[in-house]
Amino acid sequence: MTQKTVPLSTASERLLQQLENLWNFMDSALSSRQFPAQNDLRLFILASVTAATFRIIRAIIRQIRGGSVDGIEILIRSLVEGMVNVKYILEDTTQMRARAYIADDLRDRLANVRRLIPLLAKGTARGMATVTDADRYRKLERQLQQERQDLKDQYGEKNLRFPSLEQRAKLSGTEELYSTAFWLFSLDTHFTARGLDRFMNTQNNNIVIELGQDLSRIYLSLRSTYIIFCALLNECSQYFNIPQREEFKKYDFIPQ
Question: Is residue 46 a contact partner of residue 79, using CB atoms and an 8 Å limit?
Answer without folding.
Answer: no
